[in-house]
Design goal:
The protein is built from no helices and 20 strands. The chain is mainly beta and 260 residues long. A hairpin with a 2-residue loop joins strand 7 and strand 8.
């Protein structure tokens, strides 16, 4: 199977063709922390009866998708990528193995050298399907966001450079159920866009933006997203040089209507 990664810059498009990879293991093109680099990954060898292991391939790309380095790591044949991110001096990957019931957090140098790993045993089956996101910590370490708890609850955990847990915070809706619309991290702040449904029988939602300082885990803001006239349904969350922006759709009176 051929997969094509298409990178579009301000001036031109760059095309990368990847051979012999199934679409379910292809991670797409991921942006680096400051936009100067990108990366893509995929796994091969799942169904190779002659090989004992599969391989995780990581391509680090410079501006306009020019290849900078390629990394190939041996992994088990049942390995899946749960989350990944590019840090200032390398990459962060969270790998899951549903057969072995393990989850591994890994920090890599750009040359492929493994800086640190943390392996968790007897991981619950839900951990391989629930929302999981990883962000670089400041000044080092990482922030792990894990969703999919009871009624949509989630947890945020900070690990130091040796992957030792420094703090963990858990959040849940006071009433009803919660769904995470988006997460974003910039410097020492993390933002979580929440959708809360107070009444399961009504298509009516509340939206909040939670802001957390990632150094020590303190919450510095929890803002309700409201409008006295039209009602907002935020769908995206982003940041640019420390300024947050939210986009979505708007409806009258807070009720969803496909005809609106």
């Amino acid at each position: 199977v051929f997969l094509i990664a298409l990178y579009i810059s301000d001036s031109k498009a760059q095309e990368i063709i990847i051979d012999s990879v199934s679409s379910h293991s292809f991670g797409g093109v991921q942006s680096g922390r400051h936009g100067s680099s990108n990366y893509t990954y995929y796994i091969t060898g799942h169904d190779d009866n002659k090989a004992k292991t599969a391989k995780l391939h990581i391509h680090i790309l410079g501006r306009e998708a020019h290849p900078q380095n390629t990394i190939a790591l041996d992994v088990s044949k049942s390995t899946i990528v749960l989350a990944s991110a590019m840090a200032d001096h390398g990459l962060l990957f969270v790998l899951g193995d549903p057969v072995a019931k393990t989850r591994t957090i890994m920090a890599l140098e750009n040359n492929g050298e493994i800086k640190a790993t943390k392996k968790e045993e007897n991981v619950s089956p839900a951990s391989f399907t629930n929302t999981l996101r990883v962000f670089p910590g400041m000044p080092d370490g990482l922030i792990l966001f894990a969703g999919g708890g009871k009624n949509g609850s989630y947890a945020i955990t900070r690990y130091n450079r040796d992957f030792e847990e420094e703090w963990k915070k858990e959040y849940a809706a006071k009433n009803g159920t919660m769904e995470i619309i988006a997460t974003s991290s910039f410097m020492d702040k993390m933002m979580v866009l929440e959708q809360i449904k107070p009444d399961a029988k009504k298509e009516r939602y509340q939206y909040h933006l939670r802001t957390i300082m990632t150094m020590h885990g303190e919450e510095i803001a929890y803002n309700a997203l409201e409008d006295s006239g039209d009602y907002m349904y935020p769908a995206t969350l982003g940041d640019m040089m420390g300024a947050s922006f939210i986009g979505g759709t708007y409806y009258k009176n807070g009720d969803f209507d496909e005809k609106a």
